[in-house]
UniProtKB/TrEMBL annotation:
<dbReference type="InterPro" id="IPR029060">
    <property type="entry name" value="PIN-like_dom_sf"/>
</dbReference>
<dbReference type="InterPro" id="IPR036279">
    <property type="entry name" value="5-3_exonuclease_C_sf"/>
</dbReference>
<dbReference type="InterPro" id="IPR038969">
    <property type="entry name" value="FEN"/>
</dbReference>
<dbReference type="GO" id="GO:0008409">
    <property type="term" value="F:5'-3' exonuclease activity"/>
</dbReference>
<dbReference type="InterPro" id="IPR002421">
    <property type="entry name" value="5-3_exonuclease"/>
</dbReference>
<dbReference type="GO" id="GO:0017108">
    <property type="term" value="F:5'-flap endonuclease activity"/>
</dbReference>
<feature type="domain" description="5'-3' exonuclease">
    <location>
        <begin position="24"/>
        <end position="255"/>
    </location>
</feature>
<protein>
    <recommendedName>
        <fullName>5'-3' exonuclease domain-containing protein</fullName>
    </recommendedName>
</protein>
<dbReference type="GO" id="GO:0003677">
    <property type="term" value="F:DNA binding"/>
</dbReference>
<dbReference type="GO" id="GO:0033567">
    <property type="term" value="P:DNA replication, Okazaki fragment processing"/>
</dbReference>
<feature type="region of interest" description="Disordered">
    <location>
        <begin position="1"/>
        <end position="64"/>
    </location>
</feature>
Amino acid sequence: MVAVFDTPAAKRAPQQQREQLAAGYLQRRKRRRQSPADGQGSAGPAAFGSTAAPRPAGGDPLRPFKREVEQLGGICLEAAAGWEADDGLAAAAAAVGQQHPPACVLVASGDADMQQLLAPQVAWLQLHNQPSPSCPLGLELVTAADFVQRLGFPPAAYPDWLALVGKREASIGGAGVGGKAAAKLLARYGSLEAVLQAAEAGELKGWGPAAQRLLDGTGSSTREERAAQLRRNRRLFAANADASVVQPRGMQQLEARLQSLQPVQQPAGAAEQQQRPVWSGLLPAAQLAWQHPLHARRWRHLQQLVYEGQCQAGSGGSSSGCSRGPWQPRQSATPEGLAADELWEQPGGRSTAVFYICPCDVAPASWERAMQVVQQAQQGGDATPSLMPLLTGGMRHHVKLVQRAGYSVRLAVPPPLLNGAIPQR
């Protein structure tokens, strides 16, 4: 495992490499971060997170995360002054490919720019901000084959595509070419340079008004100026995979770790094996469902609370009399990869997904109210409508995803906790 971090503010160069190419690079993002704390941006160093401790006055604020990576046996890379973590990811992937070619690299990031790194041995684990019906786990595996099937041109040309269409988040405009038109141009010509050469040769006639502007330079800029701008755009969006973009110490640790790996013996027919997709079946959705942080936390808390509830019910509060009761929490998942505590199949009807609510699932100070709602519904009623407003935002969002997938939902409290044991949050 390799984690790549941006250069700490204390070591950051006055101007990033890409800012030297375009002074407005990332200005939109910077303005948003500097805006008043209105829920859209941060007011500065004091806003270190809504629930975290205040940012330390000195030192590296990311040091706790780096320490955790190192404790897991991973390596931390730090972008060199003037470069970004994206470049460090590209350099790490390139180092693995050069020194240990049989290895598969999985790049986990929420940045779509990482698609340019895709190759037969490199895949992108796209991290979404939150789950959705099409991506219930909040992450998605994207391979080079997936990319080509979706866009029609090789992943290495993704910076060329961005150069043509621009990127609002980076405050960089394109050539006025739409995403579909740019994809068709790159599918036909393969790269931005080839597109510009085709424009110079007059081959873009019939490709639409935007391509026509590339051809004749109509508007406020000449064709040469527009070509220079597009080449600059590509340099902005292309990740630099050179080892110099990472602090030497971290890269030396990575290279030493790679050198310590044993070479893989290639069996007979290895050439044929390499033609097969190396990522097929790597991340089954059902197995990953309960590894999502929301559900992993729920599982740990649920097991702990059930155990404490059984202890209190069986021994009057003495932990020496704990025994495992007949009910135990389970881990189920729908075929769509949505986690549920239990699934009740209904032949010919809608199946029911059951969630046993624990204190981490409800809003602060709402657990006693949740217990009251469940106890009042024990006479045969369903507590689900009354429990829904008490759920945290993340849990409520997940329950709604399950409902949108076509399941009925039932919210309850683990049976052992109804025996008079009300745990504290």
